[in-house]
Amino acid sequence: MMSPKSEAPTQRYQQKREVVLSQAALLFNEQGLKSATLASIAEGVGLATNSLTYYYRKKEDLAQACLLRSAAAYDQVVVAALGHAQPADRLRAYLQGHVALLAAIARGDHPPLMYFSDTRALPGPQAKQVFDAYADLFRHVRDVLRASHLPLVRDALNARAHVLLSVVNWMGPWLLEAYEVDEYLRVADGIADLLIHGLGATGRASQAVPLITGWEPQPHADATSEAFLRTATWLLNEHGYRGASVDNIAAHLNRSKGAFYHHHDHKQDLIAACFERTFDFMRQALSLAQQAPGPGLDRAYSAALAITQVQVSPQGPLLYSSAFSALPSRAHRLQASRALRKLSSRITALLVEGLRDGSVRPLDGAMAAQVLTAGITGGAVLRHWTAKPEAAVELFVRPMFDGLLCPPVD
């Protein structure tokens, strides 16, 4: 049996490690895994860098520990929600529990948790355990939506669970920026209502407007540069900043590194260009929807459909929201966030028009636009489930507009 003297150092070690994890989570969220350093984390907890390595030898080991702590905390919330019998009650309880955790973090009553956006930036040895934990979380989120009266095939259930998890992951930074802590529960109830009941007025199903049907995005870059951007986007989504190396990009295109540098001075320039390409394609679809005739709901639906179909087309994918952490600086991340907010405002405008013409039921247009933005940007993963753009409608877009518990189309 350990003596009180021998227990004390272990207890102090555990306490200090928790402090290190909390500081690291804050910096990783703010700066991204690439930009945050062990030195800056050590400084934040009053340690020398070499003292910090007593707890975690590498930055990637520390990030892994932060992400595993996040997965465990978020999974606990989902598991608690699974105690409810009905999927609508489970979904509502899940969102309420999640924002209660976010509120506790914002008040300082719970340690900060690292966002999952940098998971793909981890090297293989550290990434595997995190991906395994995240897969467990995903399976529990999928169980939130599972119901005997809702006969969904596996791909459909996976896609709806991904929409839900995309919205939940989006809520962390969004709530912190847009709402007071005492509003979090109200927002959770509002989002639950949107995800359960959809956006349309009673008895009204969303449908595409003819002007947008068949739309294809027009790249502004030349063919070679467009190929580099498309490949870099795919690598960023699949493997994070580390995987989107110049060597990997050139190898996938069977081109030389010299060809890359002929079009882009630095890798950071390429990443910024990938974001602008994604935003430009979204901007084209939303602009077309704003100009089109028809009810506001149908035009918003058509824009979401057009963007999502690009994800599984030869021109796709577009950047997944987690790629924000790959941007080279805080200034670049803020610029990208502002651009995405402006695009979300366009979705809000379409929904407000739908409120006026009666196609959209009474709801908070800005909140609904954020839910749609989270779902649309999460559509990059659709390529894992289908290579057919038409399948994107049933798998992904219709549940975003008609509710995650809407019955499948026969």
Automatic annotation (TrEMBL):
<keyword id="KW-0238">DNA-binding</keyword>
<feature type="domain" description="HTH tetR-type">
    <location>
        <begin position="222"/>
        <end position="282"/>
    </location>
</feature>
<feature type="domain" description="HTH tetR-type">
    <location>
        <begin position="14"/>
        <end position="74"/>
    </location>
</feature>
<feature type="DNA-binding region" description="H-T-H motif">
    <location>
        <begin position="37"/>
        <end position="56"/>
    </location>
</feature>
<dbReference type="InterPro" id="IPR036271">
    <property type="entry name" value="Tet_transcr_reg_TetR-rel_C_sf"/>
</dbReference>
<dbReference type="InterPro" id="IPR009057">
    <property type="entry name" value="Homeodomain-like_sf"/>
</dbReference>
<keyword id="KW-0804">Transcription</keyword>
<feature type="DNA-binding region" description="H-T-H motif">
    <location>
        <begin position="245"/>
        <end position="264"/>
    </location>
</feature>
<dbReference type="Pfam" id="PF00440">
    <property type="entry name" value="TetR_N"/>
</dbReference>
<protein>
    <recommendedName>
        <fullName>HTH tetR-type domain-containing protein</fullName>
    </recommendedName>
</protein>
<dbReference type="InterPro" id="IPR001647">
    <property type="entry name" value="HTH_TetR"/>
</dbReference>
<keyword id="KW-0805">Transcription regulation</keyword>
<dbReference type="GO" id="GO:0003677">
    <property type="term" value="F:DNA binding"/>
</dbReference>
